[in-house]
């Protein structure tokens, strides 16, 4: 029975991920078929320095949660128009906003998850998401579709908002900085593989900094002092 419940729970979360990825892929294909200028080539709408261009750029990064926006092109345009510092800040604001928006969608979807996934399996999954969800958000930020899916699924757990925000900020900072530099200095620096590699390095550092704290919060670690005290008492 337990194995069947666990399999049902896994299928439930797999279904959620599959549906989200399918929706994002369908939106991408629709935009490509319709050739929506603002979404297929946003750089044309970001050709002049000003408040309007900044607002459009940040707005495009926000709607990337629901629509396929070439975020790298937007961030490169930010760097070209507003320089390394200004472009980085604008892209960071838009990327972090997108992370929190996706996380909010996940929070609002918790009643639906409760109907799809059995209570026991959902509780175990939420524990893992609460523990590793921030790291998953950080690592997947430069990956299209997977970034939004991860943030939404993490939002269905008990992961605190502040940890999601910190992970989103760290995960968006490196791409924002590199693409802004690419736009301000040299387009050849806009290499997504390089961006992803650096983000993975930041994720590894984040993992090392949070690993000890996470281990200390596990039930096994919490129970060790009591077991040691009991052994000392029996002696």
Q: What can be said about this structure in brief?
A:
The protein has about 240 residues and is an all-alpha fold.
Query: What is the residue-mean pLDDT, rounded to a whole number?
Result: 77
Query: Structural class given helices, strands, pairing?
Result: mainly alpha
Domain module tally: 1
Poorly predicted sequence stretches spanning 5 or more consecutive residues: 1-9, 224-235
Question: How widely separated are the two ends?
Answer: 42 Å
The strand count comes to 0
Radius of gyration: 21 Å
Order of helices and strands: HHHHHHHHHH
How large is the share of residues in beta strands? under 5%
Separate helix tally: 10
In this structure, how is the largest beta sheet organized? none
Helix amount? over 70%
What would you call the shape? Answer: globular
